[in-house]
Design goal:
CATH topology of the largest domain in chain B: MetI-like fold
Number of domains of chain B: 2
Strand content of chain B: 5-15%
Order of helices and strands of chain B: HEHEHHEEHEEHHHHHHHHHH
Helix content of chain A: 25-40%
Number of helices of chain A: 10
CATH topology of the largest domain in chain A: D-Maltodextrin-Binding Protein, domain 2
CATH architecture of the largest domain in chain B: Orthogonal Bundle
Radius of gyration of chain B: 29 Å
Number of helices of chain B: 15
Distance between the termini of chain A: 56 Å
Distance between the termini of chain B: 32 Å
Largest interface: A-B, 46 and 49 residues
Number of domains of chain A: 2
Number of strands of chain A: 11
Radius of gyration of chain A: 21 Å
CATH architecture of the largest domain in chain A: 3-Layer(aba) Sandwich
Order of helices and strands of chain A: HEHEHEHEEHEHEHEEEHEHH
Shape of chain B: elongated
Largest sheet of chain B: 4 strands, mixed
Oligomer: heterodimer
Largest sheet of chain A: 9 strands, mixed
CATH class of the largest domain in chain B: Mainly Alpha
Structural class of chain B: mainly alpha
CATH superfamily of the largest domain in chain A: Periplasmic binding protein-like II
Strand order of the largest sheet of chain B: 2-3-1-4
CATH class of the largest domain in chain A: Alpha Beta
Number of strands of chain B: 6
């Protein structure tokens, strides 16, 4: 019993005044971890705990007040905004970095480039064979992330013009699984974050102007915004505790913090 | 006592959250879908609204209206119609702009937040009905995050779960029984002493490892063997689940078989029955309740297993016509989607309702098998 009290007392005292909790998107998670690590090295008194779980989990925790910052790889939804309003909380949104999405295929695929319209038709199920877009006569197998992932939503809004995915699309639980499947399936197509690109899969050049110019995904093209499939990553926090979370958010936005963004494989905010 | 109370509480919580889905409209909280007041179409089913926004339905006469093409409107399209000044810096003019827009375009269908619905709104606010139980169970489309109207048909998920589990049991039961018979009746002690711990070791492997093994080894193998465009299929899930259910089935049935009294077996042999006759006329009937217990636990594991299935079945929510097509199971859906679903929302509740369905399926299987094995026992004595 005594030991328990001491432990609890220790836990309370060690959390201190600077303890901050960050929760949410698994996409932003590795970035936040790295940022927090470096931030804590510089500020010995600061203490930051980071947990993943998904954008929805983070934003729900923000409503309940169990986290200080919510990480999100998608914009806050109307329902969540209304909930926060009902809880009497004003919310601040900060874009901390960008993530470029690469459209990838099996390396044996002859196709090297697609227009946005073609990608849309592939994902809505209108184009079913690679020969329709200049490839071999192979059925297209379409891979996507889970319906609730922020990446799924973003791809739908940004690339598919808000249309719904065909129901025959294969949903994979993680980016690693998409890469694994695409590297072993000839007719496969999928999308992954720029940071995950590797040589087992081939990234396609993409055109957003009906085929006039095609751009491949890379850190350079993403930074200069010539690569079109790029999405913002957010931190959300309530205005009432702005003072206590601001130093960390500012650190992430600083030149040093943005350098870490690039190291982790995301695209830094351009000045 | 405490355990049963906990179980009751969990079940109560599960059903309370799950039934909540039928109190919700399939439209995102705080949004409305409206059309021009002069449009002859007054009611649109939620399925048709989805098809309109996917541009599969593009003319009003497909819904019994005028032969004009449908004009889609979402909130972000407002800048195509009005200038920033008209909308206002804090969107104070937005409600008015939308009102005028819906009023001026007879062929519009507009989807926007309810708070921008002007008090003197001139259009027709579409009434979207709550989800009914039959829609939920028979619906063929699972698009829980679709906008403007979510589609929550769980038929593909239920069928996917049943397909995969059935396949797993069909593979695991004969193999498991054969292994159990071999180990309890035929194998020498030396062989048995090596095999038993090896099989039990199978049960100790984490399911993620099974999933990874399936994705890297079994999926490409199936793709090559059957010459399929894609290897992530229900069959891959069944094979992985069968491997995972094997240790349970083997261990429990083997223990039951070994409990057959020596006297009974020897009596059978003394009457001139061969070893095989003894096994299937004496040992198996004697241990049938143990075997069915092993089968129940095996099926239970197969139906509820999440991670391994999530990784190998491809998770496409289509009604499976063959076991060589991608399927999506209920546990995989819950595991993959619950983390990102807004807390307490429609999607969240729908996932709980899926949990209820899963609970009912397992309960039903347990009761049936329990009933069968009880009956058998009575016949024997």
């Amino acid at each position: 019993m005594k030991i328990k009290t001491i432990l609890i007392a220790l836990a309370i005292s060690s959390s201190g005044a600077f303890a901050q909790k960050i929760k949410g998107s698994d996409t932003v998670l590795p970035l936040s971890q790295k940022e927090a690590e470096n931030y804590m090295k510089q500020n010995k008194t600061a203490k930051i705990t980071i947990t993943g779980g998904g954008s929805g989990v983070g934003l729900a925790a923000l409503v309940d007040g169990t986290t200080d910052i919510a990480m999100a790889s998608r914009k806050m939804k109307m329902a969540e905004k209304i909930k926060l309003q009902n809880a009497g909380k004003a919310v601040r949104e900060t874009t901390i970095a960008y993530d470029a999405l690469a459209v990838i295929v099996n390396p044996s695929n002859k196709v090297t480039q697609l227009t946005r319209e073609q990608i849309e038709d592939i994902y809505t199920g209108k184009i079913k064979n690679w020969k329709e877009v200049g490839g071999d006569d192979i059925t297209i197998t379409v891979y996507s992330r889970e319906t609730s992932s922020g990446t799924y939503e973003f791809f739908k809004e940004h690339v598919m013009n808000n249309k719904n995915y065909a129901s025959s699309v294969l949903n994979m639980p993680a980016t690693g699984a998409i890469i694994q499947s695409i590297s072993q399936t000839k007719g496969a197509v999928g999308y992954v974050g720029l940071a995950y690109l590797e040589k087992d899969v081939k990234a396609l050049k993409v055109s957003y102007d009906k085929g006039k110019t095609y751009t491949g995904p890379s850190m350079e093209t993403a930074k200069s915004k010539t690569y079109p499939i790029i999405r913002p990553l957010f931190y959300y926090y309530t205005a009432s505790i702005e003072k206590s979370v601001k130093p960390f958010v500012d650190y992430v936005l600083s030149a040093e913090g943005q350098k870490i963004v690039e190291q982790v494989g995301y695209v830094p905010l351009s000045k | 006592m405490i355990t049963s109370l906990t179980v009751v509480l969990i079940v109560f919580f599960l059903f309370k959250e799950g039934i909540g889905v039928f109190n919700k409209k399939p439209i995102e909280d705080g949004y409305v879908v409206t059309i021009n007041k002069n449009n002859p179409v007054k009611n649109i089913s939620s399925e048709s609204i989805k098809d309109i926004y996917d541009q599969k339905i593009t003319y009003w006469n497909q819904l019994g209206g005028t032969p004009d093409s449908i004009i889609l409107f979402r909130l972000e399209d407002i800048s195509n119609y009005y200038t920033d000044e008209q909308i206002g810096e804090n969107f104070e003019g937005l409600a008015n702009c939308i009102n005028r827009l819906v009023d001026s375009l007879p062929n519009i269908i507009a989807f926007f937040p309810e708070k921008y619905l002007a008090p003197d709104f001139n259009g027709h606010n579409l009434n979207i009905s709550k989800i009914t139980l039959s829609e939920f169970l028979i619906g063929k489309e699972w698009f829980p995050t679709a906008q403007p109207v979510a589609q929550l048909g769980v038929m593909p998920l239920i069928l996917g779960t049943l397909w995969v589990s059935l396949g797993a049991i069909l593979i695991a039961l004969p193999l498991g029984l054969a292994a159990a018979i071999f180990m309890s009746e035929i194998a020498k002690d030396k062989v048995r002493n090596i095999m038993k711990p090896l099989i039990e070791l199978l049960a100790g492997i984490p399911s993620v490892v099974y999933g990874f093994f399936g994705l890297v080894v079994i999926v490409p193998l199936i793709q090559k063997t059957f010459d399929l465009p894609v290897g992530e299929t229900g069959l891959a899930g069944s094979i992985i689940l069968a491997i995972m259910a094997l240790p349970t089935i083997i261990t429990i049935s083997e223990d039951a078989m070994r409990n057959t009294p020596r006297a009974v077996k020897e009596a059978s042999l003394a009457l001139g029955a061969s070893k095989w006759q003894t096994i299937y006329k004496v040992v198996i009937p004697y241990s049938v309740s143990g075997i069915s217990a092993g089968a129940i636990l095996g099926i239970g594991r197969a139906i509820g297993e999440t991670m391994a299935v999530l990784m190998v079945t491809g998770n496409a929510a289509v009604i499976p016509h063959t076991i060589l097509a991608p399927v999506r199971t209920i546990p995989a859906t819950i595991a993959a989607e619950l983390g990102e679903a807004p807390n307490g929302g429609l999607h969240y509740k729908a996932l709980f309702a899926l949990g209820c369905i899963l609970f009912i399926i397992t309960l039903f299987i347990n009761l049936t098998v329990g009933f069968i094995s009880n009956k058998k026992k009575h016949n024997n004595h």
